[in-house]
Structure formats: C-alpha cells, structure tokens
User: Fold this.
Amino acid sequence: MKLSAKDFDRAVHRALDRIPEEIRAQMENVVITVRKRPTREMLKELGATPDDPPLALYQGLPLNERSVFAPPLYPDTIFIFQEPLEEICATREELEQEIEISVVHEVAHFLGLDEERLAELGYE
Assistant:
C-alpha cells in the first residue's frame, strides 16, 4: 500500500485519536513526526538494517530516568516511518492499526510502561 504524505498524515491522526486517553494524556510534551524511513544513524542506534527497519522510534529520556536537576535538553520525539509501515500493510485500516500499535509501544518507552501493562491495555 502507498499513500501520499497528506493521506498518511491523516491516517496518523486517526490512529492517534484511537489511543486510550490514559496513554494519550501522557503524550502532551512528546513531538510526533513522520519520516519516510529511518536514517542510517537511527538504524545503527537500534542495531537494525535497511532491510528490516523499525516502524517507529522513541528518542528522548524516559520519565522514570529524569531528574529535576538535569532536565532533558531536547523534546522527546516519536518518529513514525511511513514506508516500512506501508510495506507491511495491505489496507488503510490495517495501516492505522499498525500506526496506533507502534506509537503506543514508543509512548510506553517514554512512560516506562512494561509489556505486561501494554497487554492489559490490549497492545500485545
């Protein structure tokens, strides 16, 4: 499946609107940005390859690792990678579901949530 940048952004907004309020409320100071693909540096950071890229990536300092004495220098960012997501999805509905799951997993890194809590919320 392949969408224009504008249509993909709309799909991202619809997917974000479906995220449970408990999680969405915590995303207030997190920038969400769309990129076509991850950069070489991002792939290296994750130990990933161009043939097996991530669908999304959280960059920042998780809340449970922060200190009042040393606030983060940059805003927390969740990158959503359009082309890898499009490559694994056949329909727009499936794409929006994968975007939602990917963003929730990246927000979990920001919040310090574990896999058990994600499973409780329906994101296994």
